[in-house]
């Protein structure tokens, strides 16, 4: 059913979401936006992430699913644009979002623009970051959780819930996706995470894990490891791991660095090269649960690159040129790209 009408309240409505996957609630909001505006700009977030059970579908796949939900006439009035994430810098994300809107609409000061969404919980605070746009707070008729859709999909339980929760064309797309190798990898990750959380379910209170990560910069290169196992098997990461009960954070970081990379620089040299440290504590930074990491920057401006070799939890350790790192956001584990960006922006 087309939403075309000669009378529109707004020149454009902005609809921001992850759409992992698009579901009936998204469609209800989208149709409401189309009824109110001449044009709807959908901004898809998390477009620069590797596949995980939280972000299983690429930007192009989500754009394809969104298009499948609309009539041909409505698709003519909808644009779909990618916006990358910035886990620890809302200012960056805000500018990128403004840039995406300007790229679609051109000069916006003379246009009547609105932002549509629903303030369901603390994660919806972004809706208040754009005071120049009127906020349309609209709740979908049915409260559908994309998280539950993903859980049901990767557990391969009865598909009755998934089939109910998403429009028919999206369900057909998901059924085809289940036949692809990417689905098998995601299913394996889902099983690992479920088992990991089950192992801690008997704890008398929610568990918070403490980890350390090492950012070693040497002669214009950064030291990365490729993960051997779930979660994030095959992704690149900063060397690091969990803190033992009997060690301090800095000691844990140097130990994990050596275990995963075979880096044999003397400990006094490592400690002397320590230039910065920072806590990274986004509540959803890890699929394993609440995980707070303490990251340490070790900087060697000059010299020959020391020999490294993957071991322990890493199947490979490698010195990566910093200009190459800038292109690796979509193959980096968890928030490790953002952690690296934080430190490197200050060097």
SSE blueprint and pairings:
Blueprint lengths: L9 E8 L6 H13 E8 L14 H10 L3 H4 L2 E5 L7 H16 L7 E5 L16 E4 L8 H10 L4 H6 L2 H10 L3 H19 L9 E10 L2 E7 L8 E2 L2 E3 L6 H13 L5 H6 L1 E7 L10 E10 L13 E8 H4 L10 H9 L3
Parallel strand pairs: 1-2, 1-4, 2-3, 4-5, 6-11
Antiparallel strand pairs: 6-7, 6-9, 7-8, 7-12, 10-11
Structure description:
The chain has 347 residues and is α/β, with parallel strands linked by helices. The radius of gyration is 23 Å and the shape is globular. The N and C termini lie far apart (55 Å). The chain folds into two domains: 10-177, HUPs (Rossmann fold, 3-Layer(aba) Sandwich); 209-344, Nucleoside Triphosphate Pyrophosphohydrolase, CATH 3.90.79. The strands form two sheets. Strands 6, 7, 8, 9, 10, 11 and 12 form a seven-stranded mixed β-sheet that branches. The protein has twelve helices and twelve strands. Helix 1 links the parallel strand 1 (10-17) and strand 2 (37-44). Belongs to the Nudix hydrolase family. It comes from Paraburkholderia lacunae. Residues 207-343 form the Nudix hydrolase domain.
Produce a short descriptive summary.
This protein is of the alpha/beta class. It contains 12 helices and 12 strands.
């Amino acid at each position: 059913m087309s939403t075309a009408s000669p009378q529109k309240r707004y020149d454009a409505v902005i609809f921001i979401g992850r759409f992992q996957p698009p579901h009936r609630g998204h469609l209800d909001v989208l149709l409401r936006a189309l009824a109110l505006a001449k044009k709807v700009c959908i901004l898809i977030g998390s477009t620069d992430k590797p596949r995980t059970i939280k972000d299983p579908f690429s930007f192009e796949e989500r754009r394809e699913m969104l298009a499948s939900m609309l009539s041909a006439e409505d698709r003519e009035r909808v644009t779909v644009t990618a916006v990358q994430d910035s886990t620890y810098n809302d200012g960056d994300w805000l500018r990128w979002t403004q840039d995406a809107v300007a790229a679609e609409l051109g000069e916006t000061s003379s246009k009547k623009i609105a932002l549509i969404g629903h303030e369901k919980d603390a994660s919806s605070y972004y809706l208040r970051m754009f005071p120049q746009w009127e906020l349309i707070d609209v709740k979908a008729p049915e409260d559908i959780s994309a998280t539950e859709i993903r859980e049901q999909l990767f557990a391969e339980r009865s598909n009755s819930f998934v089939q109910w929760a998403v429009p028919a064309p999206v369900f057909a797309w998901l059924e085809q996706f289940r036949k692809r190798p990417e689905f098998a990898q995601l299913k394996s990750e889902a099983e690992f995470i479920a088992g990991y959380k089950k192992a801690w379910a008997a704890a008398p209170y929610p568990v918070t894990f403490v980890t350390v990560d090492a950012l070693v910069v040497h002669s214009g290169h950064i030291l990365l490891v490729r993960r051997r196992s779930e979660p994030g098997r095959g992704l690149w990461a900063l060397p690091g791991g969990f803190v033992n009960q009997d060690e301090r954070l800095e000691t844990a970081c140097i130990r994990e660095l050596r275990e995963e990379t075979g880096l044999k620089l003397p400990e006094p040299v490592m400690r002397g090269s320590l230039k910065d440290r920072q806590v990274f504590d986004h509540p959803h930074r890890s699929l394993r649960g609440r995980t707070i990491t303490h990251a340490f920057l070790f900087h060697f401006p000059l010299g020959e690159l020391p020999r490294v070799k993957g071991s322990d939890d890493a199947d490979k350790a490698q010195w990566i040129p910093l200009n190459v790192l800038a292109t690796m956001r979509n193959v980096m584990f968890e928030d490790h790209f953002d952690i690296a960006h934080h430190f490197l922006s200050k060097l």
